[in-house]
Amino acid sequence: MTEGRFPEGFLWGVATAAYQIEGAVAEDGRGESIWDRFSHTPGKVYQGHTGDVACDHYHRYRADVEEMARLGVGAYRFSVAWPRIFPQGRGQANPKGLDFYRRLIDALRERGIVPVVTLYHWDLPQALQERGGWAHRDTAYRFADYAAYLFDRLDEAVPYWITQNEPFVVAILGHVTGEHAPGLQDPMAGFRAAHHLLLSHALALQAYREGGRRHGRIGITLNLSPVEPAGDDPEDEAAARRLDGLLNRWFLDPLFRGAYPSDMVAHFAGLGLPLPEPPQEEMRAIAAPIDFLGVNYYSRQLVRHEPGEPLMAMRQVEGPLPKTAMGWEVYPEGLRRLLERLRHEYTGELPILITENGAAFDDAVSPDGAVHDPARVAYLRDHLLAVSRAIDDGVPVRGYFLWSLMDNFEWAHGYSKRFGVLYVDFDTQARIWKDSAHWYRRVIEANAVVD
Ligand code: GBH
């Protein structure tokens, strides 16, 4: 294929997540989530920002779907807020919560936009956290019940289901570093959470396969990054291998090989961490075939050996490449390498969706009323070229979802980091097309990377 051209039928999309955009946190019977609790806890989120209003998408979803139609996207990846569907996480369902997603899906269908639904993008019902959250095995079973409830009601309208978004981030940032909800700093809770997140995927997958006639496809989304040593010291190389073992292989190996990576199990055992040994039937269920793998890619990780560091004996270092407003290096080549590695080591011919890729920059509305974001256009262009090269080399990438449709609640950074191609004025809720939105519209139209 010509450089920068995409195969016919390539799925062009944008992505969001419920807590980051919806607002309306107390409306129509929605229950509390761990992110409501966390963001309302002083000191946890930048300047005390919360998702109470966010982009007010709950009320403005029709206009937002119109924006997507104008962009020309073929697909929209969003997440369902579990506490809208089951306010207590289990037990009594809340039909008004389901109605919102039905209305959203109807609006998308009217515009010919395919819904890609993530079942969990970090907003666990607080009631389940109080029963132990993801560190507790029962949460995986409650997730499967919630998933089955949605499969039975929405499957005909949903061609792609994603069980979990970034279990690494949920387990490690939520339970080990404490940067995310529920804000724990307990490595053992992190490992239990990681396993129960994978188990919840497996149980939902089972419910999907066994629950009668289904129309869609189902997969999981991982955040994956190439991990590279900062120097050529063999100790740094071993440190890079360790972070790769936690960030990438800790999730890929169970899903595609049915076992946690043995070098990492040995590493943690050497630290005296009594990792739970999951039952074989759980490991088998986690490795059950999926229909696609979702990949979120932002950057690489550069690491150095650091003997004093607990758990991983390494530290991340700042790389030399230009950075986004998040401080993440712009490294498009990493995406191509990651995709090649996935195909050779894990996924083979399994279709891949890039379920997130994008960048935050310090955007501002200029006097002419436009938002000029050339750095984002360059980021997107170079990453799309990397994807198109990987496709030309035979990696079956079937779609690309730009993170994000619009500026939104960037977790612990609140509204201070803007990832959207639509600029959001959080005082007026106006959506303003950044230059990158105009550019992305032309890419979609051409089915090719354009200038
Ligand atoms: C995604 O997370 C989220 O799915 C999305 O909700 C969010 O808005 C978006 O990206 C932008 O942040 O330094 O060891 O933690 C991406 C989170 C951040 C996870 C970088 C991996 C690097 C590994 N990623 N992180 S580490």
From TrEMBL:
The active site is at E356 (nucleophile). Signal peptide: none annotated. It is an enzyme of class 3 (hydrolase). GO terms for molecular function: beta-glucosidase activity. Its EC number is 3.2.1.21. Keywords: Carbohydrate metabolism, Cellulose degradation, Glycosidase, Hydrolase, Polysaccharide degradation. It catalyses: Hydrolysis of terminal, non-reducing beta-D-glucosyl residues with release of beta-D-glucose. The keyword rRNA-binding does not apply. SUPFAM superfamilies: (Trans)glycosidases. InterPro entries: GH (IPR017853), GH_1_N_CS (IPR033132), Glyco_hydro_1 (IPR001360), Glyco_hydro_1_AS (IPR018120), Glyco_hydro_1_beta-glucosidase (IPR017736). Gene3D superfamilies: Glycosidases. NCBIfam families: BGL. Belongs to the glycosyl hydrolase 1 family. PANTHER family: GLYCOSYL HYDROLASE, LP05116P. This is Beta-glucosidase.
